[in-house]
Amino acid sequence: MAYLMGMSGSVKGQKFEIRKDRMAIGRNQINDVVLTDEAVSSQHCYVARRGESYVLHDLNSTNGTLLNFERITDEVELKSKHMIQIGSCEFMFNDDSEEGAGSSTALVTQVVVVDKERPVINPTFYESVSPFGTRRKSNRNLWLVVFVVIGLAALASLLVFLIQIVK
């Protein structure tokens, strides 16, 4: 039986068996797999059975669907261990029938990162789902300078006050 294994985000560790000929994925409650991520469209994509194989099809979603870190535009055939990214949620597709009846495969799914130079991150088009925009890290230095200036001004005021008391 084919299934999607949640690898990250709100679906991490969950197993979604593909029991129907077409399994819809999206934010809307009518989907078979409902994702609560704001980067996911209401009807984002689907996984469908085509004969003995399975395909992934994007439904013109706003932020797209990635298969093995590449955005798909057409229907793409899925193979075992393919990585699917929908918003910030990643899934690994597994098809037990593909691995052969006579093979002795482990039931444990193991992810091996081969390319250590390329970390798993959200693509640039998912840059910010916040209504406030992206978080700017350069503000830290500005706040540090502001606090130092205020501290020095307070220290100078204290010195002037103490000098006037001593006179």
Radius of gyration, in angstroms, nearest whole number:
26 Å
Main sheet: strand order = 2-1-11-10-7-8
Round the mean pLDDT to the nearest integer and report it.
Answer: 81
Low-confidence stretches: 100-107
What is the CA-CA span between the terminal residues?
90 Å
Instruction: Report the sheet with the most strands, covering strand number, pairing sense and barrel closure.
Output: 6 strands, antiparallel
Overall morphology: rod-shaped
Tell me the fraction of residues in β-strands, as a range: 25-35%
Strand element count: 11
Note the total helix count.
1
Structural class: alpha+beta
Strand-and-helix sequence, N→C? EEEEEEEEEEEH
Notes on the protein architecture:
The protein is of the alpha+beta class. It contains one helix and eleven strands. It is rod-shaped. Mean pLDDT is 81; it is low at 100-107.
